[in-house]
Write a structure and sequence with these properties.
The chain is mainly α. It has 2 domains: about 60-225, Orthogonal Bundle (Cytochrome Bc1 Complex, Chain D, domain 2); about 235-375, Cytochrome c-like domain (Cytochrome Bc1 Complex, Chain D, domain 2). About 35% of the residues lie in helices and about 5% in strands. It has helices at about 5-35, 60-75, 160-170, 175, 185-195, 200-210, 215-225, 235-240, 250-260, 310-315, 325-335, 350-355, 365-370; strands spanning about 105-110, 115, 150-155, 160, 280, 300-305. The strands form 3 sheets. The protein has a two-stranded antiparallel sheet with strand order 1-2. Strands 3-4 form a two-stranded antiparallel ribbon. Strands 5-6 form a two-stranded antiparallel sheet. The chain is globular and about 60 Å long.
Length: about 400
């Protein structure tokens, strides 16, 4: 091979190597400039709608909602006639309660003052009681679209729609059923009880149109219709998002910006500040039950809770193990490198969105200020003076003096 040709080949080879090296370095630089590409979308939030969509199969009427209110507060729906829906979802506590795990059957008192009359007969409920406020909007997306007939319910998404959800506690052993009635018989027993009460016979016939209207389907429809009236959509944040800039202070607006920049709205998104999806977060476990709560399909994933009305609905997380908002935010800050609060989840199992949250300790007070703008105390606090069964309104929730 001529010496000149060999020189040209060597020169060209060197140029190719230099070019490829430069490309790789440029590629590395581009990647280094955007190491958090997944962080590009911070999520979106918005105000709640002013009106509620009702299912086509369960249109709203005032009479139906009034019937649902009575049923919600009537312990006739529980096996031992001592627990109502309001026992764990009381207006004084944002239709939730201030206790880690609810005490249903066999309980006395309300919220954090509630206790078991006889220990070790019935366990507390499996998870922290979620608020019923605004559950009419469950499943809503950033555009305000949702289907009330497919609305996700519970921490593990085991029910869709308020109609579906409303019957679960009645069938659940530790919530409302207790030891008096078998699960397969409990709904028939409740329907029989309601049919034996003249006032309920009259009300069901008036609402649903026949003498045979007292059914489990109509029971669910009435309770769900009432629950869709429990709306709190006039928070200062809602007013701000509807154009009233002065509704938030400068520090609250700063907290809003920090909340968004930290990536919180990737899961706590939309008008309800929830994507209504399940995520593995490594949250602390409940310690009042012998069984292990493994969440959605035994994955230790739980649904994103709403951030609305947190002032009324503490404690937080599915286990109710975190009692204040500062500690909730510290929990997320600690996800970066500190040991998880549960032994059942490993770091590599954590949801990718959880790993992307970047909360700085110094920003927590401002973010808490913002979260408090999501409270709206103007919801319906009214409680019926009596219920048709003539049992104690709300169940056994008053402590004996």
């Amino acid at each position: 091979m001529p010496r000149r040709l060999l020189f040209v080949i060597i020169l060209l080879t060197g140029l190719v190597i230099l070019f490829c090296s430069a490309c790789l370095q440029a590629g590395d630089k581009t990647e280094a400039s955007h190491p958090k590409k997944a962080f590009s979308d911070p999520g979106s939030v918005s105000a709640l709608p002013l009106t509620v969509i009702h299912p086509r199969q369960n249109p709203f009427t005032n009479e139906k909602a009034a019937l649902g209110r009575l049923l919600f507060y009537d312990p006739i729906l529980s096996g031992d006639k001592d627990v109502s829906c309001a026992s764990c979802h009381h207006p004084e506590f944002g239709y939730a309660e201030n206790i880690d795990l609810s005490i249903g059957v066999g309980g006395v008192g309300l919220s954090s003052s509630r206790y078991f009359r006889h220990a070790d007969i019935v366990p507390p409920t499996k998870r922290n009681s979620q608020s019923i406020l605004n559950t009419a909007f469950n499943g809503i997306d950033i555009n305000g679209d949702y289907d009330p007939e497919k609305a996700p319910m519970f921490w593990d998404l085991r029910a869709t729609s308020l109609e579906d959800q409303s019957l679960h506690p009645i069938r659940q052993f530790e919530e409302m059923r207790g030891t008096a009635v078998e699960e397969k018989e409990v709904l028939n027993t409740i329907i029989s009880r309601l049919g034996a009460i003249p006032v309920y016979r009259t009300l069901f016939k008036s609402v649903f149109g026949s003498d045979t209207s007292i059914t489990s389907t109509n029971l669910a429809k009435a309770i769900a219709c009432f629950e869709r009236t429990l709306i709190a959509n006039q928070s200062r944040f809602d007013l701000y998002m509807r154009g009233q800039s002065a509704a938030l202070s400068s520090s609250e607006k700063e907290g809003f910006t920090l909340f968004m920049n930290a990536g919180c709205a990737r899961c706590h998104s939309g008008p309800m500040f929830s994507d209504f999806k399940v995520h593995i977060m490594g949250t602390p476990d409940a310690d009042k039950r012998k069984d292990i709560d493994s969440g959605y399909h035994n994955s230790f994933a739980f649904r994103t809770p709403s951030l609305r009305n947190l002032r009324f609905t503490w404690p937080y997380m599915h286990s109710g193990k975190i009692t204040n908002l500062e500690d909730v935010l510290t929990f997320y800050e600690d996800l970066r490198g500190k040991p998880l609060k549960t032994k059942y989840v490993q770091e590599e199992q954590l949801d990718s969105l959880a790993k992307q949250v970047r909360i700085e300790f110094k920003d927590i007070p401002r973010i808490v200020e913002f979260l408090n703008t999501l409270n709206d105390a103007g919801y319906d606090h009214s409680i019926p003076e009596s219920v048709p069964s003539k049992l104690a309104v709300g169940g056994n929730i008053k402590l004996k003096k």
